[in-house]
């Protein structure tokens, strides 16, 4: 892995052109409801998201990087993403990421995925496939997925609340040791999924993320797409 | 099962009937292993027979008067459970064409055990072709110091129908919750339809923040599966500001809700709102 690690920096870079900046990871709805108001409440929001949606995304990404059937993983992702607004978002982001990844790390597997599902596959599954094409392993794919689960909301909160960007970065830095645990947990689950199937992957959920995603999608005016 | 009334658990009164008093179980009692089983099948006369109704440990299964073509079974708590270390199982097999309504008389109260070991409560349900299951238990209350891991696994045939309600109350009145992990996995026609794990309490990081519960202490979901939803989706209107009606990727929907207490949660998860003539009914 050591020789390939630089590819992870490219993949996890917020400037990687995959459209993630248009999404707040649920923080826009949480700000409106008053549940995220400052750095402290952003911290608990991001921590909850990391250990729920983040862990679930990390497991899917790790399993895809490990070579599990991406179409089966896409069905498993549907079952773990009850809110239709979030399924639509995940497939749109997956489509955008696939386009960028095919240019960055051309691979027959990525081409085959684009042909099999022209309307898109859940983004964490594509992320795992992209990591695989870049020569990264399941744990690194899990890192990228888990990091994205918190970096998106933290960046969005800066715009929504006028929060000090340094404070938002400190939130992410404090969560780093927990992201280490999440990536390890996800990679372990992906190994089990080889023999036990996709049910062995994490399915952690945050009820408020799902409830507010549906409400947010119905707002007439919003800053972020999700 | 304990005697704790679900709605008084958070300091509210209830209109529920008298509760059966389970046998007391000293805290020093050794851990239990118990598995209750139900098999339901058509009785050949338009109703449902229960050829297997095996009570075990804390689960006393009582047959009630049928509801239409559905057999009715009530799970009565025969002793305080689960305590830490207990391994409890409940299996229901609905053969093709069977109908079953399963309820409980009281809330399930997870309590600490003697050793600090977690308790496990595993439910396994199979619903065959044309069969219909309504599984509407009273809430699960996670008491301070308890540690419970609950799994519910449901296999649905393509034409099976399901109404399932899960409610969790985090802590008795004024106390912090114990550790609670619940995983609900539903497969339909052999494919994953809904898979959700919820973790609360000490050790579940971020559980009380704005992404998960945001300070609410009661959380639940009402899962509805019916092939008819492919033609006639569920009404989309949310039953309240902290709830959403969420159509799944399949002929199914989940009403997901958080609330301050068990009573307000129950108001958001009323199956009558969604169970119509021809859909999910008996």
From TrEMBL, chain A:
Main location: cytoplasm
UniProt subcellular location: Cytoplasm
Keyword tags: Chaperone, Cytoplasm, Nickel insertion
InterPro entries membership: UreF (IPR002639), UreF_sf (IPR038277)
Pfam families hit by this protein: UreF
HAMAP family: UreF
Family: Belongs to the UreF family.
Function, in words: Required for maturation of urease via the functional incorporation of the urease nickel metallocenter.
Assembly and interaction partners: UreD, UreF and UreG form a complex that acts as a GTP-hydrolysis-dependent molecular chaperone, activating the urease apoprotein by helping to assemble the nickel containing metallocenter of UreC. The UreE protein probably delivers the nickel.
Protein name, as recorded: Urease accessory protein UreF
Organism: Streptomyces orinoci
Gene: ureF
């Amino acid at each position: 892995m050591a020789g390939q690690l630089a590819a992870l920096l490219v993949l996890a870079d917020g400037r990687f052109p995959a459209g993630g900046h248009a999404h707040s990871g649920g923080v826009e709805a949480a700000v409106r409801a008053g549940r995220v108001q400052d750095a402290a409440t952003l911290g608990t929001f991001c921590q909850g998201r990391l250990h729920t949606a983040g862990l679930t995304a990390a497991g899917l990404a790790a399993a895809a990087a490990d070579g599990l059937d991406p179409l089966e993983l896409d069905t498993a992702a549907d079952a773990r993403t009850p809110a239709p607004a979030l399924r639509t978002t995940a497939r749109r982001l997956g489509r955008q990421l696939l386009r960028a990844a095919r240019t960055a790390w051309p691979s027959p597997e990525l081409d085959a995925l684009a042909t099999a599902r022209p309307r898109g596959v859940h983004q964490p599954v594509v992320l795992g496939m992209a990591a695989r094409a870049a020569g990264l392993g399941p744990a690194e794919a899990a890192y990228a997925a888990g990091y994205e689960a918190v970096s998106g909301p933290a960046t969005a909160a800066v715009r929504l609340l006028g929060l000090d960007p340094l404070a938002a970065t400190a939130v992410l830095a404090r969560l780093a040791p927990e992201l280490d645990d999440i990536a390890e947990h996800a990679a372990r689950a992906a190994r089990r999924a080889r023999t036990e199937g996709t049910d062995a992957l994490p399915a952690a959920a945050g009820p408020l993320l799902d409830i507010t995603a549906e409400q947010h999608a119905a707002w007439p005016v919003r800053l972020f797409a999700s | 099962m304990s005697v704790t009334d679900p709605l008084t658990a958070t300091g509210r009164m209830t209109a529920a009937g008298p509760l059966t008093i389970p046998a007391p179980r000293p805290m020093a009692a050794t851990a239990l292993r118990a598995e209750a089983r139900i098999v339901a099948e058509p009785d050949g006369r338009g109703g449902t027979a229960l050829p297997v109704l095996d009570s075990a440990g804390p689960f006393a299964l009582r047959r009630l008067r049928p509801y239409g073509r559905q057999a009715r079974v009530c799970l009565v708590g025969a002793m305080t459970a689960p305590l830490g270390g207990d391994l409890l199982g409940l299996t229901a097999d609905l053969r093709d064409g069977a109908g079953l309504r399963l309820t409980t008389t009281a809330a399930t109260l997870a309590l600490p055990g003697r050793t600090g070991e977690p308790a496990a409560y595993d439910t396994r349900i199979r619903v065959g072709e044309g069969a219909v299951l309504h599984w509407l238990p009273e809430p699960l209350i996670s008491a301070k110091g308890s540690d419970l891991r609950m799994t519910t696994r449901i296999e649905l045939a393509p034409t099976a129908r399901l109404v399932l309600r899960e409610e969790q109350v985090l802590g008795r009145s004024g106390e912090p919750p114990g550790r609670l992990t619940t995983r609900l996995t539903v497969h339909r026609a052999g494919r994953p339809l809904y898979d959700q794990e919820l973790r609360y309490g000490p050790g579940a990081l971020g559980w009380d923040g704005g992404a998960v519960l945001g300070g609410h202490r009661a959380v639940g979901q009402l899962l509805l599966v019916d092939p008819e939803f492919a033609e006639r989706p569920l009404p989309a209107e949310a039953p309240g500001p902290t709830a959403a009606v969420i159509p799944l990727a399949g002929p199914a929907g989940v009403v997901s809700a958080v609330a301050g207490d068990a009573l307000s949660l129950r108001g958001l998860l009323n199956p009558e709102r969604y169970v119509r003539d021809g859909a999910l009914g008996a």
